[in-house]
Specification:
heterodimer; A: 628 residues; Rossmann fold; Ubiquitin-like (UB roll); five-stranded mixed beta sheet; 25 helices; globular; B: 160 residues; Glutaredoxin; 2 domains; four-stranded mixed beta sheet; 7 helices; 11% strand; elongated
């Protein structure tokens, strides 16, 4: 690896690497390139073994100099992973197992034939699709933050440079600091961590003083159900590093800190590797590229506390203290890390910054709505066909997100709600499907953009139970510093538990709303101020479910155990006795009734001793057991 | 520091020295000790205090604040059941309940034989394979309640 002394050195390298990168994509080097998805889900399905097996076969066939195999970042369509993509053909193989490696190499790479059985099947048209670009999931997406994720080898800095890394940084270096901030302001980029504060404005708050200043990247992605930041850090760590360097240059910082969850070991390792490579090339350190700009990047790991995603708590955690929020003012821009001016930006925000500088503010601002520019990455999860990672322009409707991209709700179930913003957000319902996604629109509808977790729920999910789930999470994660959050959320959880246990009263709903209002206005930090949102939003949209729990003592979705029971349909029961055999409390017995057409008498569940484990339902072969 | 043997003392001192040049490295030191020993008992906190000059009270405060740090040793196999939203709406609660039922311990507890600990995790970012369970780093995807018994047995057999 060459040490880059000047901007020209970098530009020369960039031109050279761009040639190599182009050759990988269009095959002009006469080679085939295979990229295997190394994202979280695919890695857990052993995608590394696929790579190893492919290399073994290539070695055996003496093809190692004609075919390359890389492990890339997340491909996005996680529910169909692991993937293997073949360049330059753009063939995408899905649901690949390690034992498929040989067939792909022998049939496709050597034989030039498509392995039909591994192609993606479009469920809507029931048709096999060969090319990635033709899969509906990818069609409406626009990749800025996820640019090059799943394309480049995240451990190879030269390939990243060939794909455009550091071009934004070089342009920033040619501009004055104020101009860089103005460019980011003009782009309309807003913080992707959830609150949506304009990034350029945040940078402009940092005073022009001598001495240490810091830029911190918030990679403490704690929102359950969100994995955007993880995927960006794993798939293209240099994009975030470059964004941090540009921000550091703009505010005059001498050092940057990454704060990443310890739960993301792969992201941490890729980040470490990328920082090391950048240091070795002289892209980090003293007098970078001969411009006199000094900048170093350090890495700190979280230790499992959700509240550390709050910026002042995060700063305390970096300082080796309990991660509790600080009262504001002073804001971190004035007094942050070790009392020095500090900017805290989210991973996805920083990943967008190089694009803004490279392509210009106007190119970024072209996408999106009036007040929310650019794109947003969402982690689609829950009851949706295409679980995965998507990046769409702001202004895309929820319907497009859930149905066109997400493929709708599986198993013929009905869409009930989509929860955005995690424990700080709220749910949006069928009425909101035509709403355009942007910061202000989602807030107006009682939810929020949040960091990008989007959990889809169907008719089998109980909204009271979901609200309770979030409250339980908040109670667990409340740091305990201020009493509205510490005690208030606990009281709310007790009320919700009372309701789901079947002991609730209508007055409890009033009390929930009263507590919620007080917690929102009196808590110290964002965690407490938004903690009641899931309850308020489910109360607003699904009050009838709460009422059903309280008045009818029924859980309409049959989730809350105290308010539902298992019942055997005596007409459907064939009397095989499997349910009785598997019942842990022996509360199922045979009756005298033989349904017409059946030979054996049906079974019956005595609700008195039933512990509602659900064994009977899972073992019944004829579907005679149901929840009521 | 009666319970710490010489090798452990040496290693903990070495961990403290590792971050000598860092500003406020307490969380980093504790993370390394947790990784190395699986828990951070009071004796170790006293030693870290001696080495770094940070009071034991403050160290204890930090250890008990973060869920990654543990005062007690964990089991040989740590069963991490993801209870993130995506897993929860797909039935993760039933999965963790089943582990609890089979092993006779609640989340956060360790079996008497020191073999298993159940941890309730908050989203490991494996939402597309929900509900997910990790056991000592191995991820089990789309775990069904009736698979739990087999998973536990596999580790019980492996241990004997």
């Amino acid at each position: 690896m060459d040490f880059l002394k000047t901007v020209e050195d970098l530009q020369q390298l960039s031109a050279k690497c761009a040639g190599c990168f182009k050759a990988k994509i269009d095959g002009s080097d006469g080679k085939k390139h295979i990229v295997i998805c190394g994202g979280g889900a695919c890695a857990s399905a052993n995608s590394e073994q696929i790579k190893a097996n492919m290399l073994d076969v290539l070695k055996e066939k003496d093809l190692l100099d004609k075919v390359t195999v890389d492990l890339g970042g997340c491909f996005g369509l996680c529910s169909s992973g692991p993937f293997a993509k073949i360049y330059p053909d753009d063939t995408l193989y899905t649901l690949v197992k390690p034992e498929d490696a040989r067939e792909i190499i022998e049939k496709d790479i050597i034989g030039g034939e498509i392995v039909e059985r591994l192609l993606y099947v479009d469920p809507a048209a029931n048709k096999k699709i060969k090319k990635e670009s033709e899969i509906p999931f990818y069609k409406k997406q626009e990749k800025i933050a996820l640019n090059n994720c799943g394309v480049i080898d995240p451990e190879n800095i030269e390939e990243a440079i060939g794909a455009g890394a550091f071009k934004g940084f070089v342009r920033a270096l040619s501009m004055g600091r104020k101009e860089v901030i103005q460019e980011v302001l003009d782009s309309g980029l807003r913080g992707r961590g959830g609150a949506g504060f304009p990034t350029g404005r945040k940078w402009s708050f940092v005073p022009d003083v001598e001495g240490d200043k810091y830029i911190v990247c918030n990679g403490d992605e704690g929102d359950p159900g969100a994995f955007m930041d993880r995927s960006v850090l794993e798939g293209n760590p240099l994009a975030v590093i470059e964004g941090m360097m540009i921000g550091g240059y703009a505010i005059g910082a001498s050092a940057g800190y990454f704060y990443v969850r310890a739960e993301y070991p792969v992201a941490v390792q890729r980040l470490k590797n990328a920082i090391k490579q950048a240091e070795e090339m002289g892209l980090l350190g003293d007098n970078i590229l001969g411009t006199g700009f000094n900048f170093r990047i350090n890495l700190r790991l979280g230790a499992g506390a959700f509240v550390c995603g709050e910026e002042t708590a995060l700063l305390n955690s970096i300082e080796g203290k309990r991660g509790m929020p600080r009262p504001r003012p002073p804001f971190p821009a004035v007094s942050g890390l070790w009392g020095r001016p500090t900017v805290v930006n989210n991973v996805e925000t920083l990943a967008c910054v190089p694009y803004v500088l490279r392509e210009g503010a106007a190119a970024f601002a072209k996408l999106g709505t009036e007040k929310s520019k650019g794109t947003k990455v969402f982690a689609l999860g829950g009851k949706i066909t295409n679980v995965g990672l998507v990046e769409v322009p702001m202004g895309t409707t929820l319907k497009e997100l859930i149905y066109d991209i997400g493929g709708g709700i599986p198993n013929g179930k009905k869409f009930k709600a989509i929860q955005t913003g995690g424990p700080s957000g709220g749910c949006l319902t069928a009425e909101d499907l035509d709403a355009e996604i942007d910061y202000d629109n989602l807030v107006a509808r009682g939810s929020m953009m949040g960091s990008g977790g989007a959990i889809v729920m169907d008719e089998d999910n109980c909204m009271v139970d979901v609200a309770k789930f979030y409250l339980d999470f908040i109670c667990d994660e409340s740091c305990g510093k201020c009493s509205p959050c510490r005690i208030g959320t606990k009281r709310m959880l007790e009320l919700l538990t009372k309701i789901t246990d079947g002991n609730g009263t209508m007055e409890d709903l009033d009390e929930l709303e009263d507590l919620a209002a007080k917690i929102k206005t009196n808590s110290l930090c964002g965690l407490g101020q938004t903690a009641p949102n899931p309850v308020l939003s489910t109360l607003a949209h699904f009050r009838d479910e709460y009422v059903a729990h309280i008045v009818d003592k029924k859980c309409p979705a049959h989730v809350c155990k105290n308010l539902m029971e298992y019942v055997i349909d005596k007409e459907k029961c064939i009397g095989c006795g499997m349910c009785a055999k598997n019942c842990p409390t022996s509360t199922i017995s045979q009756t005298d009734y033989v349904a017409p057409g059946h030979k054996l008498a049906s079974y019956h569940i005595d609700p008195l001793n039933c512990v509602k484990c659900g064994n009977c339902m899972s073992v019944c072969k004829v579907g005679a057991v149901s929840k009521q | 520091m009666a319970h710490l043997n010489e090798a452990a003392v040496k290693q903990i001192e070495e961990i403290c020295d590792r971050y000598k040049n860092e500003n406020t490295p307490l969380v980093m030191i504790l993370s390394d000790i947790q990784k190395e020993y699986g828990y951070i008992p009071l004796e170790v906190q006293e030693l870290v205090s001696e080495k770094t000059g940070i009071s034991v009270a403050e160290i204890y405060g930090v250890v008990t604040f973060y869920s990654f740090f543990s005062l007690k040793p964990k089991g040989k196999y740590v069963i991490g059941c993801c209870l993130g939203t995506a897993c929860y709406v797909k039935g993760a609660q039933q999965v963790i309940d089943k582990f609890s039922e089979i092993l006779g311990i609640k989340a956060g507890e360790t079996t008497d034989d020191g073999l298993f600990t159940i941890d309730a995790l908050r989203c490991i970012g494996a939402c597309s394979v929900a509900p997910a369970v990790t056991i000592n780093g191995t991820v089990y995807s789309k775990v069904k309640v009736d698979e739990v018994k087999g998973i536990v047995e596999k580790y019980q057999k492996g241990a004997n």
